[in-house]
């Protein structure tokens, strides 16, 4: 009896394992293309990770843009002040725009990464199938997803940058003066940006974003896949292993590219003051880096990096882990397996 039950259990486990790696064995049906499954897995992973760390993300933006009353506070003090001024939902201000952005961004990021990786493996076999392919595919995917979704990132930053004053009116984050033209939703932000600068207005700060995302995305995927190669086979499917590899990958990538993120945020809000109390408009990424160092000090290039470390560890860990688990659940095969299937 025990032997029969054991055999049935082994058979069932085998069927489930086979179902998770077959192209047409997913729960979404036989006719769903692989790239659609990759979009679904990436979008879900991005939305979950972004919402988890939304309060930390908002505090980071307030620090990066030197918002009055926040850039000198610690993490706990900033979160506490936000909750007192704007309530619990204030901690998630801008997260709606962030999630609306991150779903297509993460979906495109992971899907194009898989497509670019497949293309490289098929057309440049001399590169092998190691982490160098992940570096190239990840960089290309990062650039593609940023270009397609950047206006939503701009909207998220502008919404998170506004702080409600004690009288309930919007307060300019840098000057400390009350503004009568606060934005309440994504449409308001995008309409204002378009009226101010046309299509270029919607892509203010895109330069440092693209400059930063190419190495960041590439290094992130490179590190994640490299770390997994050093994990014993019996632990390859461990959730803890994936969380750890994802966290370390995000931590490394963010450290290298963080100053570019600060320049991007300041270009997005577009109304910081220099020592002469004049509006600053950075011409490009290099000009932004130089001006920040001259007027605000080199430490400003790493403003918010501490909270970013706190944020990126769970964010990257949840994102990579959720994506890997969604891939298994949806029946998305590994790239090497995918090539052999298509070749057949």
From TrEMBL:
Membrane topology term: Multi-pass membrane protein
SUPFAM superfamilies: Mitochondrial carrier
Intervals holding Solcar repeats: 33-119, 129-230, 237-329
Keywords: Membrane, Repeat, Transmembrane, Transport
Cell compartments where the protein resides: Membrane
Key word tRNA processing present: no
UniProt similarity note: Belongs to the mitochondrial carrier (TC 2.A.29) family.
This protein's name: Mitochondrial carrier protein CoAc1
Organism: Stylosanthes scabra
Encoding gene per record: COAC1_1
């Amino acid at each position: 009896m025990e032997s029969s039950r054991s055999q049935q259990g082994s058979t069932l486990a085998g069927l489930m394992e086979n179902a998770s790696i077959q192209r047409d064995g997913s729960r979404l049906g036989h006719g769903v293309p692989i790239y659609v499954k990759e979009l679904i897995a990436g979008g879900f992973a991005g939305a979950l990770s972004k919402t988890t760390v939304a309060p930390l993300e908002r505090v980071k933006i307030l620090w990066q843009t030197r918002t009055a009353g926040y850039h000198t506070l610690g993490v706990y003090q900033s979160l506490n002040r936000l909750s007192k001024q704007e309530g619990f939902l204030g901690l998630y201000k801008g997260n709606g725009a962030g999630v609306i952005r991150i779903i297509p961004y993460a979906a495109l990021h992971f899907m194009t990464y898989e497509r670019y990786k497949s293309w490289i493996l098929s057309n440049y076999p001399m590169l092998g199938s190691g982490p160098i392919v992940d570096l190239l595919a990840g960089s290309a995917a990062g650039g593609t997803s940023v270009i397609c979704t950047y206006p939503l990132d701009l909207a998220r930053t502008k919404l998170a940058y506004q702080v409600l004053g004690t009288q309930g009116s919007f307060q300019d984050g840098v000057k400390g003066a009350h503004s009568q033209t606060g934005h309440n939703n994504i449409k308001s932000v995008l309409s204002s940006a378009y009226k101010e600068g046309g299509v270029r207005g919607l892509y203010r700060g895109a330069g440092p974003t693209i400059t930063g995302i190419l190495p960041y995305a590439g290094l992130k995927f490179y590190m994640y896949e490299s770390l997994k190669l050093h994990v014993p086979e019996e632990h390859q499917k461990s959730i803890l292993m994936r969380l750890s590899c994802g966290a370390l990958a995000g931590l490394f990538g963010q450290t290298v590219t963080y100053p570019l993120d600060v320049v991007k945020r300041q270009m997005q809000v577009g109304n910081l003051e220099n020592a002469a109390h004049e509006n600053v408009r950075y011409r490009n990424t290099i000009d932004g880096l130089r001006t920040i160092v001259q007027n605000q000090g080199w430490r400003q290039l790493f403003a918010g990096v501490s909270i970013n470390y706190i944020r990126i560890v769970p964010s990257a860990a949840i994102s990579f882990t959720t994506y890997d688990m969604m891939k298994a659940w949806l029946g998305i095969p590994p790239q090497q397996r995918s090539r052999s299937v298509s070749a057949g």
